[in-house]
Write a structure and sequence with these properties.
- About 60% of the residues lie in helices and about 10% in strands.
- By secondary structure, it is α+β, with helices and mostly antiparallel strands.
- It folds into three domains: about 160 residues, Four Helix Bundle (Hemerythrin (Met), subunit A) (Up-down Bundle); about 200 residues, no CATH class; about 100 residues, Tick-borne Encephalitis virus Glycoprotein, domain 1, CATH 2.60.98.
- The strands form two sheets. Strands 2, 3, 4, 5, 6 and 7 form a six-stranded antiparallel beta sheet that branches.
- Helix 1 packs antiparallel against helix 6.
- The radius of gyration is 26 Å and the shape is globular.
């Protein structure tokens, strides 16, 4: 009955999403109080039934119910429990159900966090109801996770070994919380276009923050997974699926800044609406890239080209409908408030220009090979050199601009005063550049400039933090987020400019040198894991002829899946990583050993955590403000 219960729950969820859409749109009219109450109730009901469907599928994976095709194709009795659970979304059907679950959670939050029966919120629930109905229909008719197998196999096929990792167990839900979180901003923007009410940016801002925090953490987790799991020593390769998560993050960052200006001074009203539409559009395009099968990537699991067409239809309807609504309402929209050329608004305009331009570079680099292949059959690869020439200069210009925004006033600022207040940050930038030139080799221009920019960002953030000493925690949010960018830039620069690499074939007892480290290969032993067999290398880190530490990289063979994956060994000092990967067996006890020394690599993920912490402080401040707002008086049902 497991599959039937989940299928029934999805059918009830579909019915409730349609009720939510109809009641939400009707409730956006004046005095339609009863319809708003129905929309709220339908949103909560939708959440209950989608949770039930998802819990049912999770239970099937936990108990290894191989009568359900999805479980049989993506699970195995020997898998550890954590990977049985993560196997729920380690496939196309389960990931689409996770998408709907996150959408239902956001709909419940929109309904539950409102302070009264506003028309704006009712319209937003209507939009979310339409989105939920579209995705549930997609699941039921093309991607049903509860299809039965008859006869039932005795054992499952297992889960892709690369997904059997704690990083990939958490990474997809975190990204989906970001992707789908932008649907709430999208829904509020569309509702504002329908009902013509101001204040939508303020209502949507907590959801923008949740989405941005989730995307930041999700991207960082994916980068960390690629770093330690794939065995190539890198953290980012401009893979199309990596780009699919970066594009919404760039637009969400622009949206947060633009919405702040809209809320504070009334500027950028129409532009903020467009960014909300663009942010969710990038999320839908990212879903298409990951799940349609149009590209090959180590990240693009469980794709199916036959279902990509239906995702394209959903994208066209959502984006086309929103843009058509915008075009229809554009003549009636109020222009943004005026501001001086020297003002915080101007700095935010430039901020948005650079972020959107950076997103456009990534968009072209990601989709151009796909379009060229579809039109001419020519296959090309757009890799790091393209992004170094296009994306990097734009982003560097953005980072140079960032410190000025907090120093300028709304509507009118004083550039000279702002510049003088940033002199200490400029001094720190100079110290960072001189340090590279004096103490580090090779002394590249790009690395020196990057360190100077990082020092500029971090120094300006420290000044901002000192200025706000004694203020509430949320006042430190922007400074922390900007400092996090600087810290991440230090990590990226260190690994890109000064990484050492060595590849040698060693017999037991032989040594190799990489960077400042001497390594002795002590052989390989066979180990048995819960659902894999491993060749485990024993490599001694030597210091003055003595063993300082043992590192044990592995190659794991998953028998059920018939695949082998690398499991690296990383020793970190906090400022530098020694990274080892076990290569091929060359016979007679000899193995290929790949070693890297990556200076400042841990700062990449530390910076992401600092950025996310800044977002969390801002979100906490927003929620406290909302909690203190007086709730609307209850309205009697019509």
């Amino acid at each position: 009955m497991t599959g039937e219960l989940g299928q029934l729950a999805l059918c009830f969820a579909l019915a409730l999403s349609l009720v939510m859409a109809a009641a939400g749109f009707f409730g956006a009219r004046a005095d339609a109080h009863a319809a708003r109450s129905i929309a709220n109730g339908a949103a909560m009901g939708l959440l209950v039934f989608v949770v039930l469907a998802f819990a049912t599928l999770t239970y099937a994976f936990v108990v290894s119910d191989f009568s359900i095709a999805l479980v049989a194709n993506h699970s195995h009795t020997l898998k550890p429990m954590i990977y049985k659970i993560s196997g729920v979304w380690g496939n196309h059907e389960g990931s689409m159900l996770l998408w709907v679950l996150v959408l239902a959670i956001y709909a419940g939050l929109v309904a539950g966090l409102q302070r009264g029966g506003e028309r704006l919120t009712s319209g937003a629930l209507g939009i979310q109801g339409l989105l939920a109905a579209a995705f549930i229909l997609f699941i039921l008719f093309t991607s049903n996770p509860f299809v039965r197998l008859d006869p039932m196999p005795f054992e499952g096929a297992g889960l892709t070994p690369l997904l059997q990792d704690i990083g990939l167990a958490v990474h997809p839900p975190m990204l989906y919380a970001g992707y789908v979180g932008l649907s709430a901003s999208f829904a509020y923007a569309a509702a504002a276009l329908m009902v013509g009410e101001e204040g939508w940016a303020r209502a949507a801002r907590p959801f923008m923050l949740i989405a941005w925090i989730s995307l930041t953490c999700g991207i960082a987790l994916g980068s960390w997974w690629a770093y330690y799991e794939l065995g190539w020593g890198g953290f980012w390769f401009w893979d199309p699926v990596e780009n699919a998560s970066l594009m919404p993050w760039l637009i969400a960052t622009a949206l947060l800044h633009s919405a702040l200006a809209t809320e504070k001074s009334g500027a950028f009203r129409t532009w903020t609406l467009l960014l909300a539409i663009a942010g969710f559009s990038m999320s839908l395009i990212g879903t298409f890239l990951v799940r349609s099968g149009v590209l090959s990537s180590v990240h693009a699991f469980a794709s199916d080209p036959t279902r990509g067409f239906f995702i394209m239809i959903l994208i066209a309807l959502a984006i086309g409908g929103a843009l058509a609504l915008f075009a229809w309402r554009a003549p009636t929209l109020q222009g943004g408030a005026a501001f001086d050329p020297v003002s915080r608004e101007t700095s935010l305009v430039l901020n948005n220009v650079f972020l959107v331009a950076a997103c456009a570079c990534v968009f072209v680099g990601t989709l151009y090979p796909l379009v060229l292949d579809a039109l001419t059959g020519t296959k090309i690869t757009v890799g790091p050199p393209y992004y170094a020439l296009t994306f990097a200069p734009i982003f560097f210009a953005l980072l140079l601009l960032v410190p000025f925004g907090p120093k300028l006033g709304w509507k009118r600022g004083d550039l000279k005063t702002a510049w003088r207040s940033l002199y200490p940050a400029l001094g720190l930038a100079g110290i960072a550049a001189v340090s590279v030139l004096a103490f580090v080799s090779p002394r590249g221009v790009a690395a020196t400039g990057a360190f100077a920019v990082a020092g500029w960002l971090i120094g300006a953030s420290i000044l901002d933090l000192r200025k706000r000493k004694g203020a509430r925690a949320s006042a430190f949010a922007a400074a922390l987020a900007h400092a996090g960018l600087g810290v991440t830039l230090l990590g990226v620069t260190g690994t890109a400019a000064w990484r050492s690499e060595a590849l040698q074939v060693l017999a037991p007892g032989q040594t190799m040198t990489v960077g400042p480290y001497t390594l002795r290969f002590d052989g390989v032993t066979q180990e048995k894991g819960p659902n894999y067999l491993a060749d485990r290398a024993h490599i001694a880190l030597m210091d003055g002829g003595k063993v300082k530490a043992m590192l044990e990289p592995e190659t794991r063979l998953y028998a059920a899946e018939g695949q082998a994956v690398s499991d690296t060994a990383i020793r970190t000092t906090g400022l530098r990583d020694l990274y080892l990967a076990l290569g091929d067996d060359r016979g007679q006890g000899r193995y290929a050993i790949r070693a890297y020394v990556s200076p400042l690599a841990p700062l990449i993920w530390l910076g992401a955590l600092v950025m996310a912490l800044g977002g969390m402080l801002s979100l906490g401040g927003r929620l406290r403000l909302r909690a203190r707002e007086p709730a609307s008086e209850p309205v009697a049902a019509e």
